[in-house]
Design goal:
The chain is an alpha+beta fold and about 250 residues long. The chain has one domain. Helices cover about 30% and strands about 35% of the residues. It has 7 helices and 13 strands. The strands form 3 sheets. The protein has a 7-stranded mixed β-sheet. It has a 4-stranded antiparallel β-sheet with strand order 5-6-13-10, with helices on one face. Strands 7-8 form a two-stranded antiparallel sheet. Strand 7 and strand 8 form a beta hairpin. The chain is elongated.
C-alpha cells in the first residue's frame, strides 16, 4: 500500500505542477519601413523545475531569469530576432511550434510506474494516466495562418491561432500551456479583433487555447502627401505675394 500511495502522490504532484506549467510569450514589433522583430519568451513553472528537474537549468545553459505571471513564478529565457522584411516575420511565426514533444516525454518519464509495483496497484494507477500510444497526432504549430501586409499607409496584422490539442498524462495541453501574444504596430491601432489595445500595441485574449482564434490589428500612418501639398501652397503664396508687391 505504501507503494501505491507514493505513486499516487507523485501523479498528484505532477498534475499540480503541470497546470499552467509552460509559459510562452510572443511580442511582435512592426516598423514603418517594413522591418520588425519578434521577442520569444519561454518559461517553465518554478515548482516544476524544482520538483521534477531538481532545480537544474531546463534550457540547455541559456541565460534565464525568474518572472512572475498571474501569481505564478517561472524560470524563463528570451530570444529577440530582428527581421529585414514582413515576409521574414510571417515565415518565422508560421514555423513556430509549441514544444509539446519535450514536455510529453518529460511528464511520461516522471509518471513511470516502478517495475516492482503489484498488478493490483497498477490497475488503480491506470485511472490516473493516459497511455501515450493512444494519443493522436496533432499539428503543434502555434499559428494556422499568418498575414502581415502594408497597403500604402495602412498596416495589417492578421493571424489565426491553431487550437492547442492533445494531452499529457490525461491533462489537456490547453491547461498546461499559458500563452500570451502581443503586437506593436507602426501607428495607433484603429481596428482590431480579440484583444486589448493601448495606443499602437495590442495584447490578444488567449484565455481559451482550445479554440481557433483570429488575431487582427490594423493601423494607418499619417501620410506625408498633405504636408507636402501644404508646403507647396505656402511657398507659392509667398512667391505670389512678393511678386505682386514688387509690381506695385
Amino acid at each position: 500500500m505504501k507503494k501505491i500511495f507514493a505513486v499516487i502522490l507523485s501523479v498528484v504532484t505532477l498534475a499540480l505542477c503541470l497546470t499552467g506549467c509552460v509559459y510562452e510569450d510572443l511580442s511582435v514589433k512592426l516598423n514603418k519601413n517594413g522591418t520588425g522583430s519578434v521577442a520569444a519568451t519561454v518559461g517553465l513553472k518554478k515548482d516544476f523545475v524544482d520538483q521534477m528537474m531538481n532545480g537544474q537549468n531546463p534550457f540547455d545553459g541559456k541565460e534565464t531569469k525568474e518572472i512572475e505571471i498571474d501569481g505564478d513564478k517561472y524560470i524563463a529565457y528570451t530570444e529577440t530576432t530582428e527581421y529585414a522584411s514582413f515576409d521574414e516575420i510571417v515565415k518565422a511565426l508560421s514555423d513556430m511550434t509549441y514544444d509539446t514533444d519535450d514536455y510529453e516525454e518529460l511528464a511520461e518519464k516522471e509518471t513511470e510506474i516502478p517495475e516492482e509495483t503489484e498488478s493490483t496497484e497498477t490497475s488503480v494507477i491506470d485511472d490516473w494516466l493516459t497511455e501515450s500510444n493512444e494519443k493522436e497526432e496533432s499539428d503543434n504549430h502555434i499559428f494556422k495562418s499568418v498575414e502581415i501586409k502594408q497597403d500604402g499607409s495602412k498596416y495589417i496584422f492578421d493571424a489565426v491561432l491553431n487550437p492547442l490539442a492533445g494531452d499529457v498524462s490525461g491533462y489537456d495541453m490547453s491547461d498546461i500551456f499559458k500563452v500570451s501574444i502581443s503586437v506593436e504596430m507602426p501607428a495607433k491601432i484603429t481596428a482590431y479583433k480579440n484583444g486589448t489595445v493601448d495606443g499602437n500595441k495590442i495584447t490578444f485574449d488567449l484565455s481559451d487555447m482550445s479554440k481557433e482564434t483570429e488575431l487582427y490589428a490594423e493601423c494607418k500612418t499619417a501620410s506625408i502627401v498633405p504636408v507636402v501639398i501644404c508646403g507647396i501652397l505656402v511657398v507659392a503664396s509667398l512667391v505670389a505675394f512678393f511678386v505682386l508687391r514688387k509690381r506695385k
